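re: the backbone from monday

yeah here it is again, tokenized this time
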């Protein structure tokens, strides 16, 4: 319940705005019907609450929003061909489908030299917080893959990334592909071949 309330108040400003406008309209209708001092006071409190709550929603960045932002940063690094920036976001004990950090670094660097990914788009995020310093983000990613005589239009993938909060922000602790009907690859290593 508390998680849903914080999600509504802090992560979904447009839903909050709709609810506040409906509530304010109801208060105005109540005031016009009763014309009492209490209902007039409620209308003014409602007018004051709208900008305060919407400002709070815009200013506060939740853990989920931070994790989604890191995912978007990683996608931008991949699109820019910046393997070093992706590697800088990995924890020392990073694992990806049986690969340790050094194996992943080598495979990623080689793949980014041979292939280019453009027009990346991330969607359908599902972020869970199993512990205060841990997060798991599952999402869809798509992009145009080209290189070495290869051109694949709109490759659709699904990812599950594990994050750990460390000094300096959220760092990637693990990565795995999630098989889907459109993307049946089960291991990240297959993407580097």
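seq for it, each position gets an aa:
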């Amino acid at each position: 319940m508390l998680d849903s309330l914080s999600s509504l108040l802090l992560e979904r400003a447009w839903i909050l705005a709709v609810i506040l406008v409906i509530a304010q309209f109801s208060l105005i209708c109540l005031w016009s019907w009763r014309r009492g001092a209490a209902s007039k006071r409620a209308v003014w409190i409602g007018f004051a609450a709208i900008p305060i709550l919407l400002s709070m929603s815009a200013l506060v960045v939740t853990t989920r929003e931070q994790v989604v932002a890191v995912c978007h940063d990683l996608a931008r690094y991949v699109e820019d061909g910046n393997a070093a920036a992706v590697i800088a976001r990995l924890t020392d004990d990073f694992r990806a489908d049986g690969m340790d950090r050094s194996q992943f670094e080598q495979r990623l660097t080689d793949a980014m030299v041979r292939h280019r990914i453009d027009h990346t788009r991330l969607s359908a995020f599902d972020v869970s917080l199993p512990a205060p310093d841990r997060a798991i983000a599952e999402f869809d990613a798509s992009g145009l893959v080209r290189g070495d005589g290869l051109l694949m239009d709109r490759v659709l993938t699904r990812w599950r990334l594990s994050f750990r909060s460390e000094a300096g922000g959220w760092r990637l602790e693990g990565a795995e592909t999630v098989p889907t009907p459109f993307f049946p690859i089960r291991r990240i290593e297959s993407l580097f071949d």
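The chain has a mean pLDDT of 82. The beta strands are 90-96, 99-100, 116-131, 134-147, 150-166, 169-177.
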